[in-house]
Every structure is written in C-alpha cells, then in structure tokens.
Design brief:
6 helices, 72% helix, single chain, 0% strand, mainly alpha
C-alpha cells in the first residue's frame, strides 16, 4: 500500500510540542524526586539535590511555556490539521477572542493550572526558606499529575 501524501500540512509544531510536553513531564518528575531527596538530606552540607531540583523545575517551566507558545501559534495561524485548533478556532473568530479560545478546551484549562503552578513554584524557589524542599516536592508532584493529563 502506498503512503498517503498530505499537501500543505505543517508537522513541525506537533513534533516540537510533543517533545516539549515529554520534556516537561520528565523534568517535573525529576524535580519532585530531587526535592524529596533534598528534603531527606537537609542536614548534609554538601547536598546538591536542591540545586538540581531548582534547575529541573526551571526546565519544566520553560518547556511548558514553550508548549503554550506553540499551541497559541497553531491557533493564530489557524492550522486546522491540529484537533485543538480545529475545535476551538474558526475563520470567523476575531483576534480579540483568540486568547480566551486558548483556555476554552480541557487541555487549555490544564495548561492554565500548570502555568500558575509554575509561577508559584518560581516564586517559592526565590523566596521560600527552609520549607522549600518539602513544599516544592508536593508542588512538583502536582505538576507531574497535571502534565500527565
């Protein structure tokens, strides 16, 4: 059987988005483990787990923000070959409603929760004191659950 050739289909946003979501999930999982180990080894002065956890959470945040940018790009350019753009955007939709259409679907709602948890996590990384490893362990686990959806 011959392979089907699609004309005019843009595949790079889907591939890049898949890479970013997998990277975000793995980074969230790694940061939750690293924060847990940092909490366990709090009394040891040479423990690098906290630094590793902060970096992996930052990688998680950057990959999710990149994913949001890709989805917004797909919606703005009305790439109907992607289901999210097909279901939530039309040629008649004015630009001023494009942002609210971004959060309209279930995937967008989960991205909104993930986004605000990333902002909260970055604030905690900068400002939290001795409670940072314990609190960030659970925040990272929440991110793992949300990102898996």
């Amino acid at each position: 059987m011959n392979e089907i050739q699609y004309i005019g289909e843009t595949l790079w946003p889907g591939r890049l988005g898949h890479f970013l979501i997998v990277t975000g999930f793995i980074a969230a999982l790694g940061s939750s483990v690293a924060y847990y180990l940092a909490e366990k080894e709090r009394d040891k002065p040479n423990s690098n787990w906290l630094n590793t956890a902060n970096w992996t959470f930052t990688i998680h945040g950057i990959s999710i923000l990149g994913l949001m940018g890709i989805i917004f790009y797909v919606m703005l350019n009305r790439m109907y070959e992607y289901a999210y753009a097909f279901n939530h955007v039309s040629d008649d939709l004015p630009f001023k409603y494009m942002f609210s259409a971004f959060w309209e679907g279930q995937e967008g709602s989960f991205l909104l929760w993930i986004f605000w948890h990333i902002i909260l996590g970055w604030i905690l990384i900068w400002m939290a004191g001795e409670w940072k490893p314990a609190v960030m362990t659970f925040l990272s686990l929440i991110q793992v659950c949300l990102t898996s959806m």
